[in-house]
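Weekly structure sync - notes
Attendees: PM, LS, DV (DV joined late)
Agenda: review two folding runs queued last week.

Item 1: First target. Sequence and structure tokens pasted below for the record.
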Amino acid sequence: MINTYQIIQKDPEPLIRRLHNHAQNHNSDYYYQIRSQHDLDDRVEIAARFIYLNKTCYNGLWRVNSKGEFNVPIGSYKNPTICQPEVLRACHAALQRVDVRLRDFRKLDAGEDDFIYFDPPYHPLDETSFTSYAKNGFDSRDQEGLRDICLKLDKRGAKVMVSNSDTRLIRDLYRSKDFKIEEVKAPRLVNCKADKRGAVGELIITTY
């Protein structure tokens, strides 16, 4: 994802051309051919593959296996919008004078007057909830570690916001006076059963 932002920031035109090619060739066999390309070296190709798969996979879900390989099946779209040149060019303009980096959240260096928003892998609502969006996962110890980092950043004078699922664990982690918790409803479209899709409870947690 960060690579994609960086490619758009630098020059979106090669990416647009590659996405047009994906759009022209899109079908089921082509999708699985592109999905199998886990070891690309060209950064534009990697960004184009990322967007193409996101636009054509099942409900835009990003999921990987234990090897870190994307494994979501093709979605049932009649005419997916794979390339939006004007949107990409607008993003290019918006990203100028922006520092886009890939960094471990544990090594974040921020302080007074900084605003930090964390959008971690959400804590599962129940035992059957899907959580494996990344190769190494994000378990309760990682959630606790994120909470501790929020406290450290708050002491440095930074303003911190975290979004997460509305579960007992998350409420317990952030129940101290250092945090404010607000309940919100957010749409969820990934469930394989259409009648189970809809708004679910989430928490917006802030230090300010």
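Item 2: Second target, run right after the first with the same settings.
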Amino acid sequence: MLYSTKAIVLSKIKYRDHDLIVKCYTKEKGVTSYLLKGILKSKKGPSKIAYFQLLSQLHLETNHKNSRSLQYVKEIKSSYLYSSLHTNILKSTIALFLAEVLSYALQEEEQNILLYDYIETSLQWLDTNETQANFHLLFLLKLTKYLGFYPDDSQVNAPYFNLLDGEFQHDIKGKHSIFGENLTLLKTLLGTTFDTLNSIKITGKQRQAFLTLILTYFELHLGSFKKPKSIQVFNDVFN
């Protein structure tokens, strides 16, 4: 069936000698993988490959069959051209890291327009604003709202937050209860937007500790999630 969709590139791998498999998060079908046959030997290959940089925002015309695990692309266009995300070293490092996180976190092969729109507009915000060292923390925290495990803040004044239960509590309950600097930063980020993010001042050590916490939160609530391999490179750049 022929259809068109917006798509965000999550990963790409070489397949056989001349093909690529590209995993995308699409607005119409959720996570979808595409086989680009012969793209590595085609005369137009380099120009086509440029479309598939990590987190590129595309408009695809595809021939989709539910019985296939790999779909085919008939036409590719950019739906949004980044001005700095792929050329600014700090932003490209963020893109590398978030693409890997999203590739692990997004598994559903079904439509979720609110989730797609959130990722799309957040990346466009990053592209058009000065680099924010804390962008990834707020992005990941807000992402949990669309994945179904956003922190329950009905008891936000409580002195502990339980990562496993996803709620603020008045007592420590097991090894997943957090407090101290991590708790303070969590409460601060819950009341923050991207536009006010630069008002939050934290050290590199605090940033790294909170990132470890939020990735643990993802692991506890997403069975297929694993910590990204790019985290060491990311922490070296931002800490």
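Discussion on item 2: The chain has two domains: 1-81, 85-239.
Action: LS to circulate a short write-up before next sync.
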